[in-house]
Specification:
Layout (H helix, E strand, L loop, with lengths): L7 H27 L4 E4 L1 H9 L6 E4 L23 H6 L4 E5 L5 H9 L3 E5 L5 H15 L2 H22 L7 E7 L5 E4 L4 H8 L3 E2 L7 E3 L2 H7 L3 E5 H6 L2 H7 L7 H4 L3 E4 L1 H5 L5 H12 L5 H5 L1
Parallel strand pairs: 1-2, 1-3, 3-4, 5-7, 5-9, 9-10
Antiparallel strand pairs: 5-6, 6-8
Helix pairs in contact: 2-5, 5-6, 6-13
Length: 300
């Protein structure tokens, strides 16, 4: 067997490689000890969680879906969460990017990692347990796991309280949920969506069961759904010109919901974000869907 002695240049190159490989580990150790100092938050729920954990001071930029709290509006905007570019984020010199599950494209997140920026992906399950999982992931990434545990328990308890109160009524009204997809264009929520999940939490039934996900609104879907309530994001209602515009929309105006004036508009992030404010969203929607609930249930 022949032993090979590397040349001096090879030894230097090897040393540089080892140092480069060790750098991310050293950065990770520092984050674990002190928490990240410069964070880019991608996803409205992610930013909400950071705020609820008291660490918004570490955030140097957000994405365009991060509309809460108001302080987020004062931060640089790196664009829509599903159409990110690496360059604007790298230019901010963050040491951590916390991104929602559906943020991307994936190649951009990989480019960030290659640039030496830590990237944490946050689970996206729209459920009570999913909210807690999001909070845990963000808190761990920020180095404040105990805060995350306390916040997660508080949110879970509040959601459980809403569900318990909703059980006081047997009514489960059919709800058609609409979101905006451009001026005057609407998408209707089907099965396995955050819209269906929040409607269930509030004691309603998703009126669209023919498909999963969000699809462009069609007259056939509206007729089949025959909703008792129409739930929209505020942006969707504005795109229609308000309640009067909704009633003039072919198909929608003839629904039991529109004829009875049962139209609910909510902030989109509050309604669909499944973050720390989900108990508030579920409680507000439950009060609208079940106006006959006992006063102490409605006002709690």
């Amino acid at each position: 067997m022949v032993s090979r002695i590397p040349c001096a240049a090879c030894i230097c190159a090897l040393a540089v490689t080892l140092l480069a490989a060790a750098a991310p580990s050293a950065a990770a150790a520092e984050r674990a000890a002190n928490g990240p100092g410069r964070v880019v938050a991608i996803g409205g729920a992610v930013t909400e969680i950071i705020h609820a954990l008291g660490r918004l001071d570490t955030v140097v930029a957000v994405d365009s879906t991060s509309t809460y709290p108001d302080a987020a509006d004062e931060l640089p905007d790196v664009g829509y969460m599903r159409q990110l570019s690496a360059e604007p984020i790298i230019a901010l010199a963050p040491d951590l990017v916390i991104a929602a599950a559906d943020a991307g494209p994936p190649v951009v997140l990989e480019q960030l990692r290659e640039a030496g920026i830590a990237v944490t992906r946050v689970p996206g399950e729209p459920s009570p347990d999913g909210v807690v999982d999001k909070i845990t992931a963000v808190a761990d990434a920020l180095g404040v796991p105990e805060r995350g545990h306390r916040l997660g328990r508080r949110v879970a308890d509040r959601i459980a309280a809403v569900r318990e109160r909703v059980e006081a009524t047997e009514a489960r009204p059919r709800v058609l949920t609409l979101i905006a997809a451009g001026p005057g264009n609407l998408m209707a929520a089907g099965r396995e969506t955050s819209a269906e999940a929040i409607v269930r939490l509030a004691g309603g039934r998703n009126a669209v069961q023919a498909y999963s996900g969000f699809r462009p609104l069609s007259a056939e879907a509206v007729i089949t759904a025959a909703p008792e309530w129409i739930l929209l994001t505020e942006a969707a209602l504005d795109s229609l010109g308000g309640s009067d515009g909704l009633r003039q929309r072919p198909g929608l105006g003839n629904t039991p919901a529109a004829r009875s004036g049962r139209i609910i508009a909510m902030d989109g992030l509050l309604m669909l974000g499944f973050g720390p404010r989900t108990p508030q969203a579920a409680a507000e929607l439950a009060r609208a869907l079940h106006p006959d609930l006992p006063a102490e249930t409605r006002d709690r």
